[in-house]
Specification:
The complex is a heterodimer of chains A (243) and B (253).
Chain A (H helix, E strand, L loop, with lengths): L1 H4 L13 E4 L7 H20 L5 H29 L3 H25 L13 H21 L4 H23 L2 H31 L38
Chain B lengths: L1 H4 L19 E4 L6 H19 L11 H25 L3 H25 L13 H4 L2 H14 L8 H23 L2 H31 L39
Classes of the chains: A mainly alpha (243), B mainly alpha (253).
Chain lengths: 243, 253
Amino acid sequence: MSALTDQPATVVRDREMLETSIFLQPIAAPAVLGYFAGATGFLLFGVWFAGELGGAKGAGVLFPFLLLFAGIGQFCAGLWSYRARNAAGASLFGVWGGFWMAYGFLWLMATAHVLTLPVFGHGFQPLGQWFIYMAVITWTTAFATLARSPFQFVSHAVAAAAATIACAGLIAGSAGWEHVAGWVFVAASALFIYHGMAYMLNALFGMVVLPHFSWRGEENKLGATPLVPIEVPEAEPGVRVGQ
Amino acid sequence: MAAISHPSSSVTPTNGRAAGRPRMGVFLQPIAPPVTLGLWGFFGSTMVISTWILGWWGHPGPKDPGYFFIFNAVIGGVVQFSAGLWSFKARDYVASALLTMWGTFWVGWGIVQALGATHGITIPPFTTPQPAFAIWFIPLGIFTFVGSVAALSPRHGNLPLWLLLFTVGVGSWLFCIGLWLGNTTWIDVAAWFFIVGACAAWYVGAMTMLHSAWRRVILPLGRYNRASNVPGRQLEHPTEYALGQPGVRQGAL
């Protein structure tokens, strides 16, 4: 403290005296966690929604993992996407993370007998209404990913289609449409797993192992170099890639 | 404290360095625009409750919110609040204040509904005057309306943002009157304002995200210059190393 109080403050009043620089900080791709957590949410919910996990009884065991990994995990990936400078990732992972957190809490309250949820397959208007807006948001985000890769657009569009069918099934009270939506969610999950794996493996192997089928042809060639990270190999984690 | 109790030192014009001090500089760090996620939360929450108030779906009375309040509290609340905090890093005065404020509103409303669901309090229907709830909407309306004035700024504002904040600000005051009097006509009129505001929120979120992802104008930005409103125009030139990891490269997932 004495060193601080003994010195005068440094105040600059002329903008020209300041050295201004743009500071870029590399991070591991948040999309790996985002896609893995998103895929998990779609898989768990999709299989359950398709009627394969025993209705309400199955959901009682399902929701903690849905809330924590698909919810909080994916939401954190969304927030880290801000630092990755990816608007589509921040929006998609952030909003679906929030959705699964809320859905997990809904089941938590039902399990604690605070709420009584409708019988499975007989419609659920409030949840159906929320799926309308999740579908709108997911469709919008899909068009953002189209800027980079038509394959990623298809993957996000499948997720958006699943949400669209789910809202129709829940509002109409149609068990058949709910089952269809469930399996489309499972398909979206498979596609999300692919993208998550591609981001991880391509970065770690230093070459394209699984292509994203982006618009730039050179990014799709197996063995091509997708990244040349800036690092100091013998330094600490953060200064070099990995731990 | 040192800055208050001692006079300022002089700084040489050559390098911004004072005697005995490390060099002073400003570093700027680019991030993805946080406003989109925040506005998604606002859009979904506001649409769900406004359409319910207008009777487009569900049952009148306090039963339905018992099911959807959690989604509003988490997506409209926690998610929007987080986007508001990230907006400080984006140096956005309007988003950092208003997304955070509306995020706390939805969390607060969720707490009220949770207390209702656990029978801690009794939530009355809209036909019953609720001045204690109505008064929430006075500051919400004032600050949102102030945001709409800020959205008219020639340098930083845009018309879709103005429409969003103006309709939600006015809607908040109308909602306040309706709740205070227990008058559902005022509440319905407010719900229409909220629907217009929610649609504008989707538009602002979408135009910002698509502009960032495509690196060019996709949806007109509504700024006060022609280039910003012509689809296909490139307005920003990101600083990046094309083969770098996310953060060094813009737009990498």
